[in-house]
Structures are given as C-alpha cells and as structure tokens.
C-alpha cells in the first residue's frame, strides 16, 4: 500500500507552528505579521484563492488586508499602490493575485514589488537567489512540495526526478530546487513540457515524478516504474452531476497508479494545502527580517 503524503495534515502542523510563533510575538507586545493581497477584477477562481489566503491569515493570527480593484483600474494606479505598500512599515509582505487583466504588463507589475516583500517569490531577484541557492522566498508551491518531501523524509539524493510542466510558478523552480545541493534535492532532474516527445520514456525511468501540467488523469500506471514517488500538483475543475457541479482532478490517475507507487500526494489534500501554508511561512519570514532587523 502506498504511503499517502498528507498535505492537509502537514499544512495544519505548519499552521500550528506559525500560530505559536505569532503568540510569542504578541506576548512581546509586538505587532502581528501583516499580509496584503491585491486583487484586480472579479475572476471567480482568483477571488476564491484570495479569500482562502485571508482566512489562513486569520487562523494563524496574522493581520491581513485585501485591496480589491475593479478590472478597469489603470496600470499606473496599481503601480502607485504597490509603491505605497513597498514603503509601508505596517506591511511585511504582499501578493498581487495573478492573472492580471490584459491591459496590464504582468512583468512590470512583478518587477515593481520590493523583493523583500515579495512573499510569492516571483520577483526575478528572488528567483535568481533561489537558483543560486541563496536564502530567499521560495515560490509557495515548490516550497510546499519540498516541505512535504522533507517532513515525510523521502529520499531524493541521487534519484532521477522527472518534472512535467515548466511554468514559472511550479515546474521550472521545482526543477532548480530538486537539483540543488541540499535535502530535499541532490536529484538528477529532467524537465519535460509539451514539446517533449514520448514523455513516458522519461517518466518510466523516474524515481520521483512531479506533474504540473493541468491535464486530468494524464499520468497512468504504465508511465511509471514500480515504487516511484508521485507528486501531483495539478488541480482542474471537471464538470460532473454532483450538487456542486464539478470535482477537482489531479494530473495523476490516482486509482490506476496507487498500487504501483511507493508514495503519492492525493488531490485534493496534497500539494494544494501545502501551497497555502507556505505563503504564511514566507510572510513570517518577511516579518522577522523587517521588524527584528530594524
Ligand atoms: P501552466 O502555466 O498552465 O503550464 C503548464 C505546463 O505544462 C507548460 O509548461 C506546458 O508545456 C506543460 N504541458 C502541457 N501539456 C503537456 C503535455 N501533454 N505533456 C507535457 N507537458 C505539458 O501550469 P501551472 O500554472 O504550473 O499549473 C499546472 C497545474 O497545476 C494546473 O492544474 C494548476 O491548476 C495546478 N496548480 C496547482 C497548485 C497547487 O497549489 N496545487 C499551484 C499552482 C498550479 P509548454 O511550456 O510547452 O506549454
């Protein structure tokens, strides 16, 4: 029977640890860490993500604020708000929920964030530091996967890790982190994408497969080797006849692979809750550097 890497449980442990840290901070009569989320427009999924981040902040005792702009807001106004947050001594970290409306230059907006407050870890300065194995904010999803591997003590050293998907927020940073000289890390990494021919030839030789492509049930049992560790990042809404009208599906055909793998993350309850917990972790890191180093 495969080991289920229970992201929901580990994320609760991490949140408890953060809450204890916040209680100690408050006992010293310091202000609570403060995370700000900027949302532009009314995209349903983005709204749900931002609301869950605000809820997580409450759970651990952080202060949180939501700045909600209409989709018609100008790029200049958004940049002005970012500048204000960059300068605010009351704000430790902030995120700009992506995607932004088409009239915005996403690169320019990300570049405007002070890297010291970039708790999403998307700023090129932080991405570069990550690549150079310097201390920095790691993007939340790869950070969550690393933490899950670490807490379950999954051996990654000398293993062949195949990553499917090369997005800036998951696949590409994950490939760098699995290849770093550390634990978890020290893997030999293959980064695959939609131009990789015969992807199964790579996945079949993998000790660890990390899927982040957004294609429900893409990874089947005949694509992996016996005893592989499988990390499923994918979350896709699939319409069904349930009351909700949909369910969430991962990139892995869980039922097909479950008897062949040695360890696997479920969807939901695997990488998703870990991602949420790691944003809190980055925020408390930002807090410590902004307040304690004053
Ligand atoms: P993305 O930006 O949509 O990128 C998808 C990547 O998958 C691209 O690199 C693409 O290749 C590659 N790809 C697509 N079809 C492929 C195929 N048939 N074979 C091999 N590679 C293929 O993805 P993302 O933002 O990383 O998200 C991926 C999935 O993870 C989505 O379901 C998303 O909802 C989910 N997600 C989950 C979390 C979480 O916390 N659990 C966080 C973030 C994302 P090209 O580069 O060649 O186009």
What do these coordinates show?
The chain has 294 residues and is of the alpha/beta class. It folds into two domains: 28-115, Rossmann fold (3-Layer(aba) Sandwich), CATH 3.40.50; 140-272, Rossmann fold. The protein has ten helices and eleven strands. The strands form three sheets. It has a six-stranded parallel sheet. Strands 3-2-4 form a three-stranded parallel sheet, covered by helices on one side. It has a two-stranded antiparallel sheet with strand order 9-10. Strand 2 (34-40), helix 2 and strand 3 form a beta-alpha-beta unit. The longest helix has 22 residues, at 271-292. The mean pLDDT is 96. Bound molecules: NADP nicotinamide-adenine-dinucleotide phosphate (NAP). NADP nicotinamide-adenine-dinucleotide phosphate binds at residues 141, 164-167, 169-171, 192-196, 199, 212-215, 233-236, 271-272, 275.
**CATH architecture of the largest domain, please?**
3-Layer(aba) Sandwich
Structural class, by secondary structure, is alpha/beta
Beta strand % = 15-25%
What is the radius of gyration? 19 Å
How would you sum up the major sheet? 6 strands, parallel
Subunit organisation of the chains: single chain
Number of strands: 11
Number of domains: 2
Overall average pLDDT: 96
CATH class group of the largest domain: Alpha Beta
| 3D shape | globular
Give, in spatial order, the strands making up the sheet with the most strands. Answer: 1-11-8-7-5-6
Extract low-pLDDT stretches: none
What share of the residues lie within helices? 25-40%
């Amino acid at each position: 029977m495969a080991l289920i890497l229970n992201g929901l449980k580990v994320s609760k442990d991490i949140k408890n640890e953060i809450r204890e840290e916040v209680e100690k901070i408050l006992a010293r009569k310091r202000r609570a860490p403060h995370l700000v989320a900027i949302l532009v427009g009314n995209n349903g999924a983005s709204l749900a993500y931002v609301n869950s981040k605000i809820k997580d902040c409450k759970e651990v005792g952080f202060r949180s604020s939501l700045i909600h702009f209409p989709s018609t807001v100008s790029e200049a106004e958004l940049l002005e708000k970012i500048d204000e947050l960059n300068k605010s001594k009351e704000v430790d970290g902030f995120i700009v929920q992506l995607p932004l409306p088409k009239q915005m230059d996403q690169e320019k907006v990300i570049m405007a964030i002070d890297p010291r407050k970039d708790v999403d870890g998307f700023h090129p300065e932080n991405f570069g530091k990550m690549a150079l194995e310097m201390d920095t904010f790691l993007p939340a999803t790869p950070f969550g996967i690393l933490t899950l591997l670490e807490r379950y003590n999954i051996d990654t050293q000398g293993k062949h890790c195949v990553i499917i998907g090369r997005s800036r927020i998951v696949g590409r940073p994950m490939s760098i982190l699995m290849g770093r000289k550390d634990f978890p890390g020290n893997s030999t990494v293959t980064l695959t994408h939609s131009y990789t021919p015969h992807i199964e030839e790579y996945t079949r030789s993998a000790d660890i497969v990390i899927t982040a492509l957004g294609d429900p049930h893409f990874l089947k049992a005949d694509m992996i080797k016996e005893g592989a560790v499988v990390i499923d990042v994918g979350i896709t809404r699939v319409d069904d006849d349930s009351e909700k009208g949909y369910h969430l599906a991962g990139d892995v055909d869980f039922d097909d692979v479950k008897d062949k793998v040695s360890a696997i993350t479920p969807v939901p309850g695997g990488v998703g809750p870990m991602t949420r917990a790691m944003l809190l972790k980055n925020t408390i890191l930002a807090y410590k550097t902004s307040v304690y180093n004053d």
